[in-house]
Amino acid sequence: MQRTLLAEPRVFGPFVDLLVLATSWWATVHLRQWLRVWWPFDLVPGEAAVIQALSVGPHLFLGFLVVPVWLLCLRVYRTYDDLRTLRKDILAIRIGRATLAATLLMAWGIFALQIDQVSRTLFVGFPLIAAGMVFASRLSMVAFMQRKNLAAHNIVVIGAGAEAEPFIKTLLDNADWGLRVYGVIRPGAADDDPVTDVAGQRIPVLGHLSELPRVLETHPIHQVYLTGRAWETRTLRQVADSCEELGVEFSMDANFLGLRVAQAELRDFEGWSVLSFTSTPRSGEAMVVKRMLDIITTGLGLAALSPIFLLTALAIKLEDPSGPVFFGQQRSGLYGKSFTMWKFRSMVADAEKLKAQLQSQNEMDGPVFKIKHDPRITMIGRFIRKTSIDELPQLWNVLRGDMSLVGPRPPIPAEVSQYERWQLRRLSMRPGITCIWQVSGRNNIDFETWMKLDLQYIDNWSLFLDIKLLLKTIPVVLLRQGAS
Fold first, then answer.
1. Domains by residue range for the chain, with CATH
2. What is the dihedral of CA 239, 245, 246, 248, to 10 degrees?
3. pLDDT of residue 364 exceeding 80
4. Helix, strand or coil for residue 40?
């Protein structure tokens, strides 16, 4: 049975990109030419012009070599796959990687072919313009498919009502994914009622499991989804064989173990297909970008904030000449690995020894120790705590890789030893300077809610979430909300 090839991004996407990249190259060449008109001045009289005239023709011709390289890299880095369900930050990372690879290939090609007098402005400007235009075209492509209902797949769901209906409801609630529920196959004998009602929509029951081959032969089905957790191997094989014979995509519920958070990923080990489950962010690409942003941002931050570091250190020394400027404390980092977290010292030098005497005044529940008006805090310490200046040395921890700008706050090992089992999962991500807790009231939140907020961050992590939390942290710090 021949199945119709629907209009999918991987099919018509390259044609859209061809137009986008060609337009971007043309625009970059002419912008570079017009730049000479807009800036006719030379910085050094009598020397070569800073922005020299550009030979438009040869540079436009060079586009016939550049554009195919970009198209190849966009294909290799899977920028056309799963556009409807792919997170925008992951799409941006894939396009960024494709752009970097294409730029390096372009540089190598120019060197290998010994092409002279290629504009450096063009070499830098085109990747930036092209990446932005391709990303915008992807978003426009998805919006167009959703509006015109293109690339929609008919999906049949196999399962009993209690197991199939939650998944069907998910598909109905996310119609923009392009998965149209064509019907339901029941595991046992077909129900008397030829339809099943899910979220107010009536889904036809196409038959029972033994009738699956007939259903696939007589209906335009693109994908079969098997729900439930108690299928026999023989049944799984029956469904898989029926789909394989007709070229129908077969998917099954990977959460057959009943895991609530962990996500499944299929991996290949020299021909061995292995299903792995993880309850932490899986995008290695996005995590690499997160680390790069940490390094770049903290490097710039340490340089820009060096005067504040100097003034704070001087103030601490003037108030207590015998005590240290910095306070280092052992904290539990990623997967419980111990590291020294640094702060500006805001308490008296023997603060840790006095902690036991103040334990009865602890205002936080759980293993965390906090007192709103802690008598151990110095005069300078109270100011730098209120302004969050005491946290600035943690930028060094971020630069070293012990911490990240955004992530669950690193706990003291003694606190971790008192955690309940479910709370230990907050150690599965690199700790940070700020997180959801910091922008949600800080000390005004009870311990259990704090732990749940950290797990919420881990379960919903994305680069966009990090940026959002960093932006929310700024007014919290400036307005001194929850600081003590």
1. 9-148 (no CATH), 153-253 (3.40.50.720), 284-478 (no CATH)
2. 50
3. no
4. coil
130/26 Cα distance (integer angstroms): 11
Question: What three-state secondary structure class fits 81?
Answer: coil
Beta strands per DSSP E along 166-271 = 179-186, 195-198, 201-208, 223-226, 249-252, 263-269
Question: Which range is least confidently modeled, 133-147, 261-275, 305-319, 380-394?
Answer: 261-275
- Give the C-alpha separation, 334 to 336, whole Å: 5
Give dist(CA 346, CA 155) in Å, integer: 61
320, containing H or E segment: none
Q: What percent of the chain has pLDDT over 70?
A: 74
At which residue do the structure tokens 């190259």 appear? 25
Q: pLDDT by residue (tens digit) across 61-97?
A: 777 888 888 998 888 888 887 666 677 778 888 899 8
Query: What is the H or E stretch that residue 145 is in?
Result: helix 120-148
DSSP helix/strand/coil, 251 = strand
Can you tell me the distance from the alpha carbon of 77 to that of 316, in angstroms, rounded to the nearest whole number? Answer: 52
Q: How far apart are the first and last CA of the chain?
A: 70
Please list, in sequence order, all residues whose beta carbon lies within 8 angstroms of the beta carbon of residue 362, skipping any fewer than 6 positions away: 369, 370, 371
Angle ∠(376,381,384) on CA atoms, nearest 5: 150
CA-derived radius of gyration, the chain: 29
CA distance readout (Å), 266 to 38, 70, 315, 452, 459: 55, 29, 56, 29, 19
**What pLDDT score does 265 carry?**
67
From the list 463, 280, 268, 301, the residue with the least C-alpha distance to 397 is 301
Residue in 271, 283, 293, 272 with CA at minimum distance from that of residue 78: 283
CA distance 129 to 102: 13
**Is the four-CA dihedral 114, 118, 120, 124 of positive or negative sign?**
negative
Q: Give the residue from 463, 341, 473 showing the smallest Cα distance to 395.
A: 341
Residue 324 identity (one-letter amino acid): P
Nearest CA to 168 out of 202, 193, 143 is that of 202
**Dihedral Cα 190, 196, 202, 207, nearest 10 deg:** -20
Distance CA 167, CA 97 (A): 34
Q: How far is CA 422 from the centre of its chain?
A: 23
> What letter would DSSP give residue 191?
P
Position 421 confidence tier, pLDDT thresholds 50, 70, 90: confident
The distance of Cα 225 from the centroid of its chain, to the nearest Å, equals 27
- What secondary structure letter does DSSP report for 119? -
**267 φ/ψ angles, rounded to the nearest 5 degrees:** -125, 160
